[in-house]
Each structure stands twice: as C-alpha cells, then as structure tokens.
Amino acid sequence: MEKGKGVMGSGRRWAVDFSDNSTAPSSRDIPDPPGFTRASVDQDDSAVSRQKKDAESNWKAQKAWEVAQAPFKNLLMMGFMMWMAGSTVHLFSIGITFSALWQPISALQGVGKVFEPYKDNKVDLLGPKLLFIALNLGGLALGVWKLNTLGLLPTHASDWVSSLPPAQEVEYSGGGIPL
Amino acid sequence: MAIRSFFAPFLFFALCSYSSLTPVLSLYEDQVGLMDWHQQYIGKVKQAVFSTQKTGRRRVIVSTEENVIASLDLRHGEIFWRHLLGSNDVIDGIDIGLGKYVITLSSGGSVLRSWNLPDGQMMWESSLQGPKHSKSLLLVPTNLKIEKDNVIVVFSNGRLHAVSCIDGEVLWNKDFEAESFEALQVIQPPGSDLIYVVGFAASSQFEMYQINARNGELLKHERATFSSGFLREVSLVSSETVVALDSTGSILLTISFQNGEISFQQTPISSLVEDPSGPAVIIPSSVPGIFAIKTNAFTIFIRVIGEGKLEVVEKTNHETTVSNVLPISEGQQAFALVQHAGSEIHLAVKIAHDWDGNLLKESIKMDQQRGLVHKVFINNYIRTDRSHGFRVLIVMEDHSLLLLQQGAIVWSREDGLASVIDVTASELPVERDGVSVAKVEHNLFEWLKGHMLKLKGTLMLASPEDVAAIQSMRLKSSEKSKMTRDHNGFRKLLVVLTRAGKLFALHTGDGRIVWSHFLQSLHKSGTCQSPIGLNLYQWQVPHHHAMDENPSVLVISRCGPSSDAPVVLSFVDTYTGKELNSLSLVHGVVQVIPLPYTDSTEQRLHLLIDSDKHAHLYPTTSEALRIFKREFSNIYWYSVEDHNGIIKGHALKCKCTDEAADEFCFDTRDLWSVVFPSESGKIIATVTRKLNEVVHTQAKVIADQDVMYKYISRNLLFVATVAPKGSGEIGSVTPEESWLVAYLIDTVTGRILHRVTHHGARGPVHAVFSENWIVYHYFNLRAHRYEMSVIEIYDQSRADNKDVWKLVLGKHNLSSPISLFSRPEVITKSQSYFFTHSVKAIAVTSTAKGITSKQLLVGTIGDQVLALDKRFLDPRRSVNPTQAEKEEGIIPLTDSLPIIPQSYVTHALRVEGLRGIITVPAKLESTTLVFAHGVDLFFTQLAPSRTYDSLTEDFSYALLLLTIVALVAAIFVTWRLSERKELQDKWR
C-alpha cells in the first residue's frame, strides 16, 4: 500500500481519463452524428441499470437474510460446546459460558454495522435485522441458561443472605464460675 | 463421546485445583522456626543440687514446683535434660547418689526414682508403701554402706526405708506405728552406723528413735514431753541437737539427744533480744551451730555455744535468705547469706563456726522487678591459686533463676513463664515516618544480596553454603521481630500474667521479652502475705479515633483465695509496661464481666460483682456511667455455683441502697435459676463463646443452594454435668451408673435450649464454643474410648426467609436486632465420633473477619497441639454423601476422627505440661496466631484454609522482577528487529 503511494507521489507520467462525458451534451464540442439519437440510448441504459439495480437489491436482501441467519449456526455450535463443557464450575465451562454471553452482546451492539453493506432504500432490512436480533437474543438466553445451570446466577435465597452479618442482640449477659 | 473423553483430563485437572478435600498443613523441614518459636522453662526451683563430678561439664540438678527435674548447664543456664512428672507426682526431694545418679522422691514419698546424671535416662524406680500418710524425707548419706552398696534412706508414709542406690531394691524397712508421730528430721551422723529419726507426737511430745543403719533394728526410743507444745519446724544445729520453738513462738528450745538422752534447754527469745515484736518462726536450715528465727520485723541469727547456751550474732531488718550448707574442706562447712538493701543484694559466704569472718562478700545490683530472694543454693570451685571460689544460684520472687559468680550475674532464666495464668494480645505501636527508612537504605546492599541468594536458590544454582546462608537469613529476618505494627498483623505483643504475679510482654516474632513488670500489688507485703494474680483483661484497645492513646490491660489481683479478700485493679500500659494506675477496692470481687461497650477513649466498660451481689461499674467516669445507664435494662449476669449445682441469672435493679456506696454501685435481683439436683448431676464444665469472636455470616448454605440460619448468640452457655459417681477416678464406676448431660442455656432468660444425655459417658469434659457450634470431648465407658461430640444450633424461625425478591429488595428482618425474650425456635444437629487421644485443652482458630474456615486445636496428652479441621466434626456427615453434598465438601462419615501426623501444629516439638491454647486473629484474614502455654511456650501462625490472600513466604520477588525485566527487554529487542526488517523491505 505504502509502496504504491510512494511511486504515485514521485510524479505522473501519463493518465487516462475514463470519465464518461456522454451524458453532458453541453460540454461536447462535436455534434452528434446524424441518425444517432442520444435519448434512446439513454433510455436503454436506464432500463438496464434499473434491472441491474433490482438484481443487486435482490441480492442484497438475500445476503441480508443470510447474514441474519448466521447466528443460528453459531447457536448450534454454542449449544454443542456447552454440552461438552458439563455443568460443573471450572475454567473451561466458565470460558465457554462467557464467550456464549459475549458473542451475542457484541453482535447486538454491531447490528447496524453488520447490515451496513446491504443498506439500500429498496431493501427492507427490518426483517433480517429482527431475525438477527432474535437469534442473538436466543444465544444470549442460552448463555444465561448455562450460567444458571452452573449456579452462577443469584436466583436463590442463599445468594442474597450468604454474607448477611448476624443480627445484633439487644441483651447482654456475662458471668461464669466465681473467681 | 470421543471429544468428551478428550476433555476429561482438563476437567479433572480443574476439579483438583478447586476442591482439595483434605488440606494438609504440614511444614517443610526448612520452614521450621520461620514463623514459630518454642521456649523451654522449668518453673520455680524448689531444690538444687550441684553435681560434684570432677570431669565433664559442670551442671546443677534442680527440682521445681512445676514437677520438673532438670539438669542445667552451669555456664549458660541451658537445659541438658528435663523430665516433667505428672501433676499428681509432686517432687518431695532430690539428691545425687554415688556422684552419677540423681535420686528423686515424689508422689508424697511413695515413688523413688534414679536417673542417670549425664543423660537423664531413668535407671530404676521403686514404689515405697507405708501404713499412713506422712511427711517424706530423703537422705542420701555419702559414706553409709551396707555390703558395698550405697544406701538411700527414705522416710515416707510412716515407714523408714533403706534402699539400694544401685538397683532400687528395698534393703530393710521399719514402721513407725505410733499414731500421731510426725517425723521432722532423719539424721545420719557422719562416720557412724546410726540413724536418728526425730519428730513430734501429739503436739507436746518430742520423740527420738535411734536405728541401726545396717539392718533397721531399733536401738533406742526415747520421748520427752514439753507441756506447752511445739511449733512444727525444727532447725538442725548439730547431728545430735535440734532447735525448736514452743507453740506460742516465744521460747526457744534446744533439744539435745546425745547418747540417746533427750534434754531440753529453754531460752525465752526476750532474753536474747529486747523487743522481739511478736511471735517468731524458725527458718529451716541446717547450718552447724547457727540457726535463724524470723519475727515480724527482724531476722535474728543465733549461735549455739555448747550445753544449749544461745547467743545472738546478728539481728537485721533486711530480708535475709540462708543457703544450704556446703562442706568445703575437712570439718569446715560454708553457707551463703543473701540480704536485700535497696536496689542491691549483699551476698556473704561464711564458714559455719566463724560468723564474723567472711569468705566472700559481694554486692550485686539487682533488678527491682525480680522481687525478693526466695532461695539460695551455694556451690564452690577451686581457683587456679587453689583458693575457694563460690557460685550461688538464687531463686527470686518472680520465679526467675540466677547464677551469681564473682559479683556478677552470669546467667538468668525467666522461669516464671513456666506458670502462665492468663494471656492477652496487644498491638504494637504504629510505625512513624522516618523511623525505619535509614535502616532500609543501610541494608539495601544486604537486601539485594539476600534476594540474589534467594534467586540462586530458586534457580537451583545455590551451593550448600548458600543454602545454609539462605536458611539462616530466613530465620533471622529482622522483619519479623521489629517493634512496630505490620501490615498483616503478624507482629503483636503477648501480654502474659504468671503465677508469681509478674507481667511479661512477649514479641510474637521471636518470643523475646519486650518488657516485664512485677506488679506492686502482687509483691508480698505486710498487709498481704499471699497475693495472687487472677486474670488479665483488655482495658483499652485504641483504634480509629483514639490512636494517640497507648493500649492498656487490666490486671485483677486478690489477697488470698477467699472471695471477699481485698482486690487491687492495676492498669498497665502495654507499650511500655508501666503501671498507669492501681486501685485498691473497698469491695471484694467474685466476677469480672467485660461489657460490649467502650467509651470515647476506647476504654472497655467492666462490671465487677462483689460477694454481696452488688455490681460495680469501672471505669468510674461520668461518660461510662452515661453509656451504662443507656444500656442499663439490657445488661444481665449469671453465676455458676458448681459446688451446689445451681446456675442463677440476675438483672440489675437500681443504685445501691447503702449509704457508703457511690453512684457506680448497683443492686441486682435474681431472675431465674437452674438447679441440677446433686443426685443426678454435678457441673463439671461450662463454656461460652469468646466475647471478641467475629462471625461473618448468619447463613449457612448447604447443598442445592438451600440456606440454614445459624443461631448465633453471645448469651449461650454450654454446661456439662455428670452423674455424681462418674466424677471420681476412671474405673470407679460402671457404664450403667454413669451419664453425661450437655445443656445449652440462654443466660438472659434461663431457657434451656437443648439437652442431650450421653449414657455410659463420663468426664473430664473439655469443650469449645464458637459461632453456633460446640465441640466437647469426654470418655465413653461402654466403648472404652474417648469421644468427641458436636452440636450445631440453627434458628428455625428464620428458615422461611426464602423469597428471593424480598431479599433483593431488602424487605426482610434478618438483620434487625433481636431480643432473647422473643421465643427462639432452634433445632440442633449433633454427631459423635471416637477420638484416640485424651485431651488437655481445646481451642478454635479465630480470624479477623470470621470468613476463613475453622480448625480445632486439640492439646493432646502427648503435649502436642493437633489441628483438626472443623469439617470432620460436621453433624451433616453421612456414610454416603450425595453428589451435591460432596461438592459442598462434606466428608463421608467414619466412626473415628482421623489424626493426620502432618497436622500437628507443634510439628516435632512438645509443649511440656500443656495447659492452655490461645488464638489471636492476625489482620490478614487467612491467618491466625496460636500461642500454647504450659511449662514450655510455643507460638506459631496458622492458615486453616491456607494463605489464600497473600503470597507465600518463599515467593521469589527477585525471580518475578527478573522475568519482568527480561520480558521488557525482549519486547524492546523484537521491536527494534522488526523496525529494521521493515526498513530493509522498503529498500528492496
């Protein structure tokens, strides 16, 4: 990359301007040849490009759905990993659980970015986005469920009272065997 | 499944690191002495005999009030060997026989033993029985032989025995059947075959028996009556003359029994000294020709000049002590006199027949903190110029032992520490700025060197010399013996009250004595002949807002054992050992109750109960009174009358109604009483929780996330009673007629919360109470084994606090104050286990916040301290615990508690005569400080769940530093390399 820049920066020897000036007749000095109608070509071109655009947006929508469905595979994979990890608390299961929690969260944070390439005013991204979010939430739920099976969620009374100091006693009594 | 089995080793590894079921707390060999120290003592010396051996190292054999026989090095005072006899095997006399055996008479004269002098091996033991109990006397004549066998003459249990010195065989014995005969002296005139036994019968009769030493034949028996009776003490002035006092203590009687004829010679003391000031007593001595009597004001030395004539040689009002007699040459006998004069003691060595001439006269400066000289023992040595030199062993009032030679103290032993009564811990001063910086800089090179050595050790590069250097460096670490508070709270002062009445402060780092103070109130004085120190309480423990004050302790001492004897409170600063204040109380004290309240200077309020059941508040300040008035209705007290089996509860009523009383005196009223009928039970043990114990949580989480609420109360009393028959000797009772009942009594309301009967069990009971559980140890007569039981108490009324949302929102009453008058619903769980050892003391570890799991510290009969995990005494143990219970750490039930040799806290050492174990929490939560005392002292640090909150002592900081440096260097180098490579790539 840097190398290319360096070469370009050292001096321009020749250049080809590929800019299409055809659509700006006012700038042309040479009149059109007879029998040539610019308009029809323009029309044809626009039809083709519309077709192209349609195809592209179709493709984009398709892609967006694909992307939206991607977490599903992830979900299955995660489920498998979790099954592998077992239900006792140790380094491996904790690692898997936390990655299972972290992946959906980070994916959800980047929902906009994921669907950025497929942004098009003709493509309805709401559906894929919703699916994507739902699947990721599913993944998150799976992670939470795993966390719960590991016993790491404070859902029991014991989790809330285990550090409760003993209650103060109002009365005090001392004494014993006489000295 | 294949993948799963691939992960299995990982899981196993992780599991292992999380749940280690039996934490082994053993030490490595090179860790001994790093955190622990052990000091050996012998106790107050009763009798000392110098070894006359010409060859080998000079030594002195001593017997002490702690029933120790020891051989001490005369040069340094170190112990060569030592034997502790049982507490019921009191030593009556010691002597050296044949120059190589130490002969001891003990157990009221019924056990005679011989020990090899050089190494302390027992040679023989013989049992001497007799018809009746009597005073026991041991005599080892130097030149009395029966058939080439040296003879030991023992008078004990009303019988005279002649015992062979070689094998302990009784050669002959002779009974003294006369009902009231009481032998006072057994005399063997040198060079004769006669033994005289002299004594009194029926208070006014003097009796003399003359016995043939060869066969025990009674040669002569004479008696003479003196109408006004005798005082029971005689002084031997020659081999055929004794001096006694009449029963009024005003007439001296010279009793001569020459040739078997008894003759009295009466001399009134008033004829010898004008103004004798009160009755006299004889100071027992055996100096030929001279004896001493003591009146209230004077000590008088009197010489016997033939035919019963007496002459006063000296009259002094100084405290004087006379030594034993030392034969120095043919016909010459020397003795030593020690007199007090201000801060000095005067030592004089005299020859028995020449009072005015001194062989030696020295003045030695003596620490006032040692009190008076109690005993003197003299020994001589031959100087290079063939003259006699003398060394003197003295026993002081504080039980210390000193050797004086050539006007100086050669060595001293603080043997008062062999009889510790009470212990409390105190913090050290906070480190001030600028105190230790210079020291660190000075030692910077040393520090670096030390760490380099350590690093070498870690990398296994150290040579044997280096290893030795590392070890000695670890042992002598100045860090642990500094006089300032440390971050982990390992350095503290142990304030120790000894039976002699002296306070010592021991540094926990190395066990040295930081200061010692002989309390003025515990000095023997005219007003109080036998003062006893009772207890030690923490009076002021400054922290937070009262940091500038020094902490202080309260010492309670009483004049004599009776409960209404005058009491003195002494307040001692624990930083300096100075007595801040001392109060002589007008009332007696039967109980001292530290209250859980402190005033603004962190002085703890104490309630002292006198024998009329009045409560007196201390400190006597208006602030204390205000705090006390605020809590007035919530303060109760209870008394355990173990002799008649009653436990009584009392409440405070009003101010004292006596006119004489001040405003700090309060009347009390009886509230409740629990009576144990004498035919069914006798109280043998009561235990409460320690006042300063910290409990972290009230909930106990059991398997399946369930919660049990502990019943934690400061006001619970554990009482053990046994059947009256079961309190006698072991073997005196059958299992059917013996039982042990354990009660848990609420001391505010008198409610019995729990009661359990162990049939066929008997005492002695040792118990420990902590948090919500009690562990007690007793003997099971049916199984013929010792048992330990545990009771855990849970609060059932809180058990329904199970709604998570209520707990999350804090809508519960678990932390609101509770009154004991609201009826608690408790359930108890208990379990019993066999235990191999009999026990001398039980304690439990205590930590700063109470989070760390607990260990029981069991003082075994072998004088060692065994750490036993509390998890072994868990009533929820079952034979087959479920998976969940196993995860919780419940150990499968076994019928007996395991004794793991590695879990002896005292490792290879013994705390001879172990009496008590004290635990003090360090500031570091995982660690607790353990102090065990008996005749020996032992201190160590314990981490019941290992040191989870700090790096271990042998962690190599140098290695860590080196690794970091190496990593940084590697990063730098690789960065440079990659830079260069990139540049080269760009130029290509």
From TrEMBL, chain A:
Keywords: Endoplasmic reticulum, Membrane, Transmembrane, Transmembrane helix. The chain crosses the membrane at residues 80-105, 125-145. Its main location: endoplasmic reticulum. It comes from the Eukaryota. It is found in: Endoplasmic reticulum membrane. Residues 1-55 are annotated as: Disordered. It is a multi-pass membrane protein. Pfam families: EMC4. Belongs to the EMC4 family. This is ER membrane protein complex subunit 4. It comes from Hibiscus sabdariffa.
Automatic annotation (TrEMBL), chain B:
It comes from the Eukaryota. Residues 770-987 form the ER membrane protein complex subunit 1 C-terminal domain. Keywords: Endoplasmic reticulum, Glycoprotein, Membrane, Signal, Transmembrane, Transmembrane helix. It is found in: Endoplasmic reticulum membrane. The chain crosses the membrane at residues 955-978. It is a single-pass type I membrane protein. Component of the ER membrane protein complex (EMC). Belongs to the EMC1 family. This is ER membrane protein complex subunit 1.
